[in-house]
Structure formats: structure tokens, C-alpha cells
Amino acid sequence: METGRTVKDVSPHEFVKAYAAHLKRSGKMELPHWTDIVKTARFKELAPYDPDWYYIRAASMARKIYLRHGIGVGGFQKIYGGRRRNGSCPPHFCKSSGAVARHILQQLQKMDIIDIDPKGMRSAWMGNRYILVRSVH
């Protein structure tokens, strides 16, 4: 007897790649006009080279919310943050862009992929968990 598959059963890289393609195919996600020129963090020097970076980040964020409920903009800033090189000074950790995380969370809520519970925490509700897993297989 075959058991049901969840997001945890699939490789994170394969899931994010497949779900990003699903988000792009669906056409429900509105891209902001600044996606081709914005840096994703203060410590980055250039904008992302991949033209589909927004869908990949959205798929990654949907997966993170599925696995860890209640992550907000600040949590995603820490997750996608990294090392800032300060020239001759020592490097320090720097958070990623809050505007990118905020806009993607708003888009995921608008598409009903994630939901906000009465306590104000974001989570992927059961119907959408099925959609997350189904879109990969």
C-alpha cells in the first residue's frame, strides 16, 4: 500500500524548481515592475541573473511556510540574509530585502496559498498543502 507523499518526501531543490514552474504556468502571480532591477539584499552587488528568480523565491517561501508555520517578513530576511563584505573591515551578517519578502507574502496570500490564522501567524492550510504536493508530482 502506497502512502501519501508530502513536501518533506521530495528533495527541496526539485520541489522548489517544480513549484516555481507551476506558479509561472498558473499566471496568477503578479510580478512587480521592479523585478528586473532590484537587488535581493543590501550585501548583493547585482540583481539576480535568472529572469524567473521571483517565482523561485516565492516557491521557496511557500515551502518554508509549509514546514515552519508563523514565519513573517523578519524571519525571511534572516533566512535569505548572508555575509556582507566590508572591504578591509571584517564581514558581518546582513539581512535580505524586506520589500521582496513582503511582496511575495502578499502575493501568496492573494493566491490563497497561505493563510493568516487568528493569532496573526501565516500557515499553509490543508487544502493548499495538497496543492503544493500535487503540483510537484
UniProtKB/TrEMBL annotation:
Give the record's keywords alphabetically: Ribonucleoprotein, Ribosomal protein
| Gene Ontology MF term list | RNA binding; structural constituent of ribosome
What GO CC terms are in its UniProt record? cytosolic small ribosomal subunit
**Which residue spans adopt a coiled-coil conformation according to this UniProt entry?**
none
Does Ribonucleoprotein show up as a keyword for this record? yes
SMART domains listed in its UniProt record:
Ribosomal_S19e
Q: Could you provide one GO biological process annotation from this protein's UniProt record?
A: ribosomal small subunit assembly
Record Pfam families: Ribosomal_S19e
The family line of this record is: Belongs to the eukaryotic ribosomal protein eS19 family.
Supply the PANTHER family for this chain. Answer: 40S RIBOSOMAL PROTEIN S19
Task: Identify this protein by name.
Answer: 40S ribosomal protein S19
